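Lab notes, practical 5.
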Amino acid sequence: MSHKILAIDDENDVLLIIKTALASEGYDILTASNGFDGLALAEDQKPDIILLDLRMPEMDGMEVLEQLRENEKTQDIPVIILTGISDKNKIREALDKGITYYIVKPFECQDLVSKIQIAIKDSRQETA
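Output from the prediction step:
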């Protein structure tokens, strides 16, 4: 069974890197270039994992994360933050809001893939 991953990032080149790296691993990739589209896709498609950038126009990643956690349909989806922000306070704030991993850009594709595999495995065990 192919796992569905939603990547929310306003940078098209980052979405392309994610899509290329994860599609080659057999994942089904959905992308959104802003928080509003990302929230709508998350609710509609119920992905197995959400990759979320923090720094986006209109609605930043923290707002997206809060709304994901408040929505019954999306509150249990594991979220991996993928961002250029390495500020310890931001990392702590994101962890407090229930993210699974925090990866700072630039990232290694293999590191991202392994964290996704672990997060999927962990979420399966929680629902079992």
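Observations recorded by the TA: The longest helix spans residues 109-127. The chain has five helices and five strands.
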